[in-house]
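# step 3/5: fold
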Amino acid sequence: MTGRTKQAWYMVLISTLEKAVNFSRPAKVHDFSQQSPDAFAFERTGEHQASMTGQGRNVRRGDYLLLQIDQNTALYQVQNIDYYSSPADMWTALLIEAESPD
């Protein structure tokens, strides 16, 4: 393996590991509270759980979503997220209600 090929292979490996264990950055808070209710689909699936479909880049597992639900502001943490292939910034996520990010 040449030096350049080895370096490319390492970069792919590091990127894959970062995605798998979410080391790439600390959790972020994404504010959806000012968006129109038509901008995303939110559905409670349990007492403290929900699913949501929305648009926006860089939402990742472990991030927090600030939402306006039934006249109340709620904070949810992303437990799992899958992006659609088209449009590329559309996703669906499983959420759990959260107190506040640390």
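# step 4/5: annotate
The beta strands are 29-31, 41-44, 49-55, 64-69, 72-83, 90-97.
# step 5/5: archive (pending)
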